[in-house]
């Protein structure tokens, strides 16, 4: 299950940190690539040398090395990880995670990570029972983290109660069980398009649109979490994606068409979330167009409809999903796109809904499937919308 996976272990300053030597060993034995980030206090309980020797990688704990001046890129670390495990997680670290505080490398990495995060708390029994800790753990759960509950037993204080970090062997079993449940798309190839396309007018100008690409990128991240092999064909965006996503950067509708057709045949699930330009200049001026008259006419020709072209050659076992952004006659227009482009379902964004569509962190969708079933969803974060879309996909695969 862990073979070839990138596991990032965050170690914080509690006595249970000494057990992470065994945790690193077990992950390594299971075939994972493992890197460790330690908080400054964690180094009082287990040495970086122990963990770097066992993991086979340098241990990270500071943003920049005093001697070499080298910077540890927390964003890269977060994106490298397929799984982030924070063990032991002290009450202090749990409090910071729940409130978005970011005063060390581990917290910056946590805030940058897009992968599933597992948290194994360890603290004294009264700290574990405290309302603040309970509230913080609840917050972590509602943010999508998985808590590996602490155990009853003898604690470092000499008291007996709940607060011991779960044993490394059981941490591994719990993560494994969770992944088994969640990996519903293992072995599936997913192709996603995202972002706008830019259609060049001359060397310095283009026709584009306001798509941020966020919806497509969230879909790609969700597909990875479900165990799929993901290719993301992306128009120009400011977004970054996890390292396990195969990113194909394109600019124009033509390039997107070609990239999609290079991958469509081997894909099981194809989702087209890109806002592709419908028209492109008939000619691209090789020189910058000079200002001349009061008006300028640029002749445009239509681009190929990528989604419709895939619909035409789609195999029976392939699942094809499109998007429709509408301002009026939403359901009618979306249904007509669903039929014309031969889709399994279409995700409708209505610009009439506040907080939906381009440029928002949220989206409000309806899904119309080829059986004419219409499902309406509430306004949600784009990450939760991606989950709804994959739940629909999984229900159709069954
Ligand atoms: N699409 C595509 N290639 C195009 C245009 C659109 O693949 N050249 C895809 C989009 O990625 C989306 C779906 O088709 O999944 C619908 O896009 P949309 O712009 O809403 O519809 P159009 O078919 O372009 O129709 P219109 O712009 O007239 O609403």
Defining key terms:
398 residues, alpha/beta, Rossmann fold, 2 domains, 8-stranded mixed beta sheet, 5-stranded parallel beta sheet, 13 helices, 21 strands, 24% strand, binds cytidine-5'-triphosphate
Strand content: 15-25%
Largest sheet: 8 strands, mixed
Annotated CATH architecture of the largest domain:
3-Layer(aba) Sandwich
Percentage of residues in helical conformation: 25-40%
Number of helices: 13
- CATH C-level class of the largest domain: Alpha Beta
Strands across the major sheet, in which order? 12-11-8-13-16-17-19-20
How many strands appear in the DSSP assignment? 21
Total domains: 2
Distance between the termini: 23 Å
- How much is the average pLDDT? 95
CATH superfamily of the largest domain: CoaB-like
- Contiguous uncertain segments of 5+ residues: none
**Strand-pairing-aware structural class:** alpha/beta
Gyration radius (Cα, Å) is 25 Å
What ligands are attached or bound here?
Answer: cytidine-5'-triphosphate
Shape: elongated
The CATH topology of the largest domain is given as Rossmann fold
């Amino acid at each position: 299950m862990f073979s070839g996976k990138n596991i990032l272990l965050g170690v914080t300053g509690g006595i249970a940190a000494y057990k992470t030597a065994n945790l690193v060993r077990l992950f390594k034995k299971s075939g994972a690539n493992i890197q460790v980030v330690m908080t400054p206090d964690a180094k009082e309980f287990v040495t970086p040398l122990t963990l770097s020797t066992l993991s086979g990688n340098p241990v990270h704990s500071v943003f920049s090395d005093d001697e070499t001046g080298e910077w540890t890129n927390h964003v890269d670390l977060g994106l490298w990880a397929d799984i982030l495990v924070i063990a032991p997680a002290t009450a202090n670290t749990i409090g910071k995670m729940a409130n978005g505080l970011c005063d060390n490398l581990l917290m910056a990495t946590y805030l940058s990570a897009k992968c599933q995060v597992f948290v194994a708390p360890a603290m004294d029994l009264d700290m574990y029972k405290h309302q603040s800790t309970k509230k913080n753990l609840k917050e972590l759960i509602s943010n999508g983290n998985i808590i590996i509950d602490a155990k009853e037993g003898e604690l470092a204080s000499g008291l007996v109660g709940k607060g011991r970090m779960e044993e490394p062997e059981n941490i591994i079993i719990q993560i494994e069980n969770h992944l088994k449940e969640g990996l519903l798309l293992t072995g599936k190839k997913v192709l996603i398009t995202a972002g706008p396309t830019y259609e060049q007018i001359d060397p310095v100008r283009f026709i584009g649109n306001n798509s941020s690409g966020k919806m497509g990128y969230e879909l790609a991240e969700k597909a990875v979490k479900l165990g799929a092999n993901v290719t993301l064909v992306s128009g120009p965006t400011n977004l970054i994606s996890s390292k396990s996503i195969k990113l194909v950067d394109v600019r124009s509708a033509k390039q997107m068409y070609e990239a999609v057709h290079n991958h469509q045949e081997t894909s099981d699930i194809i989702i087209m979330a890109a806002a592709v330009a419908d028209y492109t200049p008939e000619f691209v001026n090789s020189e910058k167009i000079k200002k001349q008259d009061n008006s300028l006419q640029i002749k445009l020709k239509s681009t190929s409809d990528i989604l419709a072209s895939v619909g035409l050659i789609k195999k029976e076992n392939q699942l094809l999903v499109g998007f429709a952004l509408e301002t009026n006659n939403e359901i009618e227009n979306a249904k007509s796109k669903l039929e014309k482009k031969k889709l399994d379902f279409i995700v409708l964004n209505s610009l009439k809904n506040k907080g939906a569509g381009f440029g928002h962190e949220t989206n409000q969708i309806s899904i119309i499937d080829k059986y004419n079933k219409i499902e309406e969803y509430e306004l949600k974060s784009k990450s939760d919308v991606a989950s709804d879309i994959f739940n629909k996909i999984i229900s159709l695969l069954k």
